[in-house]
Write a structure and sequence with these properties.
Length: about 290
């Protein structure tokens, strides 16, 4: 049986918001922007100021077709950033390499965000929390005609199985994540979001990451059929994050932290069934 003990959000009225910080040259949205460690740390602190509960530091892109990097290079990118941010905010390390996860926890990270759903022994050894994300294949191959008989059931069953193994190994904080865009077509992504209740019903806390992803670009394509560029995917990112939270996700992983925190607060208040909004008065402009 799940015994999840996720971190409490700064504001108890809302779910957690994980801010994305990619210290990479090639991430699909922010690639190259935060490769310099000082700029990365400054960006991380910005995410904190915007309300991020966790900053997720990654040193290797997992976008479709991304090139693998060595552990040494990944460590060179992430360690100074993890070390500098961890006194200020909870830090997760987005990696699939055991050595990187271990070193990042040594530098102050307390959550291993694992898109391979295989690093629970490392999390158990280090005493860190663990995010198990579902994916099919590797970034090089994962979008080559992915097929499922029942995507929701298959993703749920794999994640529940891994979570049970992690719990048995002694991991104290376990999250499951359907892995939107990782070996999934647009329809698979939508089915997973629509079927999120099945993941929530496992009892493991659920994380969802849709932020600025390609399927949102496709859904927002212009009249010429070209997908909306990454900087025009905020509406879809917010809509899907809000939907996921409303369906019971306990955390969303996003680039646009401030906007998502606002949305999460609203969902939290509505879920609590409390119409009162604290200090906001009806005399305020626009109410
Ligand atoms: N998505 C990405 C990376 N890590 N981790 C979790 N738990 N869930 C996700 O959906 C997820 C993830 C891909 O997004 P991003 O980090 O923005 O891009 P890139 O992989 O190109 O660095």
């Amino acid at each position: 049986m799940p015994d999840p003990s996720p971190a409490a959000p700064a504001d108890p009225d809302r779910a957690l918001v994980m801010g994305i910080l990619n210290v990479t040259p090639d991430s699909f949205s922010d690639g190259g922007r935060w490769l310099d460690p000082d700029r990365a740390v400054a960006r991380g602190l910005e995410l904190v100021a915007e309300g991020a509960d966790i900053v997720d530091v990654g040193g290797e892109s997992t976008r479709p077709g991304a090139v693998e990097v060595s552990a040494d290079e990944e460590l060179r990118r992430v360690l100074p950033v993890v070390g500098a941010l961890s006194p200020h905010v909870r830090v997760s390390i987005d990696t699939t390499k055991a050595s990187v996860a271990e070193a990042a926890v040594g530098a102050g990270a307390t959550l291993v965000n694992d898109v391979s759903a295989s690093l629970w022994p490392v999390a158990a050894d280090c005493g860190a929390g663990w995010v198990a994300m579902h994916r099919r294949g590797t970034p090089a191959t994962m979008q080559d005609d992915p097929r499922y008989d029942d995507v929701v059931a298959e993703v749920r069953d794999l994640l529940a199985d891994r979570a049970e193994q992690a719990a048995a190994a002694g991991v104290g904080e376990i999250w499951i994540d359907p892995g939107i865009g990782f070996g999934k077509t647009l329809d698979h992504n939508l089915e997973l979001l629509a079927g999120l209740d099945a993941l929530v019903a496992t009892g493991w806390p659920v994380v969802v990451g849709t932020s600025r992803k390609g399927f949102l670009g496709v859904l927002a394509a212009g009249p010429d059929g070209a997908p909306a560029p990454v900087d025009q995917r905020l509406p879809g990112s917010l809509a899907t994050a809000t939907y996921a939270l409303q369906r019971g996700a306990g955390m969303v992983r996003v680039h646009d932290v401030a906007a998502t925190v606002q949305a999460a607060l609203l969902v939290g208040r509505l879920q609590a069934g409390a119409p009162g909004t604290g200090s906001t008065s009806e005399t305020e402009e626009g109410s």
